[in-house]
Amino acid sequence: MATNALRSLWAEPRPTQAPDWGPRDLALVAALVCWSVVEVVLRQDLAPRPLLLLAVLAVLGPLLWRRTHPFVAVAVSFGTLTIVDIVRVLTGLQGGLLNSVSAALILAYALFRWGSGREAASGLGVILLWLAITYVADPMSLWETVAGYAFFLFAAALGAAVRFRAKIRIRDIDQAKAREREQLARELHDTVAHHVSGIAIQAQAGRAIAASHPERAIEALAIIEDAATRTLSELRAIVGALRASQDTEFAPQPGVAEVEQLATCGQTRPCVEVTLSGEFDDLSPAVGAAIYRLAQESITNARRHARNATQVTVAVTGDADRVRLTIDDDGSSGAGGRGPAGYGLVGMRERASLLGGTFHAGPTVERGWRVEAVLPRTGTPR
């Protein structure tokens, strides 16, 4: 397992869309330049100025492109610092480097924040090599040596932690977007399919009776107009919710009380009868909306697929800890059944499952089709 983890880290790609340098980076470089100038003026125990200038440039220059080219920045900076320290060791020059060189910690952080796995491992090797040589050029106690290594390793660990935190955040955002797309797909399917199905049925009926009963054809056109108006209204509400800002007050979702509005009272075939029984006062709004959408989609499916259906019965019962929805129709499915399960049944099953309920749809023993869903009143999965 450890080997697999190391291989995974080694193969880790660079984060996408690394930001380029900006005003803050220029301000950082300017502050480090001022720090270096102050040190040159105040300190006396410094190495020769050419080496100081080379060391400062090695740190300040790569800071500007530490995000877009993290490994190159580390290689240039710490490689140059290594050369400076080797020159100091071989020539025996006295004096130390500027404390502003410690800004190289930022490069160690950037290496693990923005570099790939291979770049991070290679760059860490360059940093550790410099640390080993710089302690030869400037002998220190064991405690100071351990502290120096700890500082750079902490910077690298911090960069890795921020990197993977950002990665997890991006993954969570992608998952949230996927859930929103699924919810939108269910809402569009349940809303538009229901009304358009009714429009299609009324249009067929109106065309069939237009010649013999013109007045009934006019009634069918009025029903079509009303259904089309409601469809447009719900579509505008959905589009408005997608375009609106976070402060927009959205309209409430339909609930159990609105299920009664799905009844047709003999205006269309099949006739839809709705019965509500039990208590629904303390019902979760999410459960109420799910009951309404499940009933709406089941009625739409009955109109589309139930052959010769004359009656659809919708029964909603509120018990002490759950709500039961049952939809029966008296249509015939034919020898081939009602076709493969489409997005409607998938969406209904998802609605019930997300709220901790159960869902079942299938033919009855005698005739027709039954849809049954049982949801907990609180909408909380057990």
TrEMBL record:
Species classification: Bacteria, Bacillati, Actinomycetota, Actinomycetes, Micrococcales
InterPro entries per the UniProt record, alphabetical: HATPase_C_sf, HATPase_dom, Sensor_HK_TwoCompSys, Sig_transdc_His_kin_sub3_dim/P
Assigned keywords, A-Z: ATP-binding, Kinase, Membrane, Nucleotide-binding, Phosphoprotein, Transferase, Transmembrane, Transmembrane helix, Two-component regulatory system
Annotated ranges, domain Histidine kinase/HSP90-like ATPase: 290-377
Record domain Signal transduction histidine kinase subgroup 3 dimerisation and phosphoacceptor: where: 180-246
Enzyme class, spelled out: transferase
Name of protein: histidine kinase
Transmembrane stretches, start-end: 46-64, 71-90, 96-112, 119-137, 143-162
Keyword Lipid biosynthesis: no
Gene3D superfamilies: 1.20.5.1930, Histidine kinase-like ATPase, C-terminal domain
Gene source species: Georgenia thermotolerans
Catalytic activity, EC: 2.7.13.3
GO MF assignments: ATP binding; phosphorelay sensor kinase activity; protein dimerization activity
Keyword Metal-binding: no
PANTHER family according to UniProt: NITRATE/NITRITE SENSOR PROTEIN NARX-RELATED, NITRATE_NITRITE SENSOR PROTEIN NARQ
Record-level GO cellular component terms: membrane
Origin: domain of life: Bacteria
Recorded catalytic activity of this chain's protein: ATP + protein L-histidine = ADP + protein N-phospho-L-histidine
